[in-house]
């Protein structure tokens, strides 16, 4: 998708200007990831929070390579023919989790439509490797839609993650222009299947980016749709254009508006809502206690 702009990107409002911490912890985290040859969504997706997260000695591991088979209009991850899966990657993720001392780990992946199971078995192996080496760590997965294949979803669920996250990303009207191959209803179907199969044994989670041109009514409809399929946890954050080749920002949503959205979502029954300009799917994910929330 080409969205090349002739005008420069708009200046960030004050609430989106962040200081870049450089600490010993940041350097250690970066060194560990390099040593174990691990990809993170922090770098590959150009997440603006990675300076803070790495300084807190945490990261979101991105398995199955750093080449995606899809080309979403918002995402900075490279679109290219993927390389073969690395058989020892689950072990390396588990070792990084141990050495970082993570109590809550988030494991995501590129879309692997080239694989029959979409990479589900690789997710399962990674979850089990992390748990074997880190038995007390809460494991959250952030998955692609697996083309809504039952066997792929069941494969991931068989490894018993505590949180199953799949992002809706945006409202129904904007989905065709924002997401590649993914559909609004397919994402709802995935989340619904996970909840029906696992019930109270895990929490389902989803997130949306705001500022792409959605209306308040459209956002509320999307939140209602997520609750209708049993989604428990919600993240709402500001979309930021990673490069001039990606979709432009239509609106900078204010912190006050994010607070209003949070209040509305909590009224719908989400057990945990993170809503703010810098919120991302896995940002401060450890603040949700999967063991105590109902």
Quick description:
This protein is of the alpha/beta class. The chain has helices at residues 24-35, 41-44, 50-55, 89-100, 120-133, 150-157, 175-178, 184-198, 216-228, 255-268; strands at residues 60-63, 67-68, 78-79, 104-109, 138-142, 163-165, 203-210, 233-238, 272-275.
Describe the structure.
The protein is of the alpha/beta class and 294 residues long. It has one domain: TIM Barrel (Alpha-Beta Barrel), CATH 3.20.20.70. Helices cover 35% and strands 14% of the residues. The chain contains ten helices and nine strands. The chain has helices at residues 24-35, 41-44, 50-55, 89-100, 120-133, 150-157, 175-178, 184-198, 216-228, 255-268; strands at residues 60-63, 67-68, 78-79, 104-109, 138-142, 163-165, 203-210, 233-238, 272-275. Strands 1-4-5-6-7-8-9 form a seven-stranded parallel beta sheet. Helix 5 (120-133) packs parallel to helix 6 (150-157). The radius of gyration is 18 Å and the shape is globular. 46% of the residues are buried.
Estimate nothing, just give the exact number of structural domains: 1
CATH superfamily: Aldolase class I
Distance between the termini: 41 Å
The CATH C-level name is: Alpha Beta
Named CATH topology: TIM Barrel
Outline: globular
What is the correct CATH architecture? Alpha-Beta Barrel
The count of DSSP E runs of length 2 or more, i.e. the number of strands, is 9
Name the average pLDDT. Answer: 87
Characterize the largest beta sheet: strand count, sense, and whether it forms a barrel: 7 strands, parallel
Number of helices: 10
Structural class comes to alpha/beta
Strand order of the largest sheet: 1-4-5-6-7-8-9
Helix content range:
25-40%
Percentage beta strand: 5-15%
Radius of gyration: 18 Å
Low-confidence blocks of residues? 1-6
Oligomer description: single chain
Order of SSEs: HHHEEEHEHEHEHHEHEHE
């Amino acid at each position: 998708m080409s969205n090349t702009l002739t005008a420069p990107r708009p200046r960030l409002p004050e609430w989106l200007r962040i200081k870049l911490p450089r600490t010993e912890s940041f350097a250690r985290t970066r060194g560990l990831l390099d040593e174990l040859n691990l990809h993170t969504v922090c770098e590959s997706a150009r997440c603006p929070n990675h300076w803070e997260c790495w300084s807190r000695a945490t990261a979101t591991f991105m398995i199955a390579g750093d080449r995606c088979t899809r080309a979403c209009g918002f995402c900075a991850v490279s679109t290219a023919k993927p390389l073969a899966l690395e058989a020892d990657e689950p072990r390396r993720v588990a070792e990084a989790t141990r050495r970082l001392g993570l109590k809550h780990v988030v494991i995501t992946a590129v879309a692997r439509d080239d694989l029959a199971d979409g990479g589900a078995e690789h997710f399962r192996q990674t979850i089990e490797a992390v748990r074997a080496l880190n038995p007390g760590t809460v494991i959250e997965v952030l998955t692609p839609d697996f083309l809504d294949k039952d066997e792929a979803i069941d494969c991931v669920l068989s490894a018993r993650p505590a949180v199953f996250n799949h992002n809706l990303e945006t409202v129904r009207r904007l989905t065709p222009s924002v997401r590649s191959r993914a559909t609004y209803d397919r994402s709802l179907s995935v989340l619904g299947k996970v909840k029906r199969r696992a019930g109270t044994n895990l929490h389902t989670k989803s997130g949306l980016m705001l500022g792409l041109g959605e209306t308040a009514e459209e956002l509320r409809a999307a939140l209602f749709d997520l609750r209708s399929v049993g989604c428990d946890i919600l993240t709402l954050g500001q979309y930021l254009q990673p490069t001039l080749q990606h979709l432009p920002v239509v609106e900078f949503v204010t912190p006050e508006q994010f607070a209003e959205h949070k209040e509305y979502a909590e009224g719908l029954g989400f057990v945990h809502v993170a809503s703010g300009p810098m919120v991302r799917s896995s940002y401060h994910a450890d603040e949700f206690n999967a063991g105590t929330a109902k």
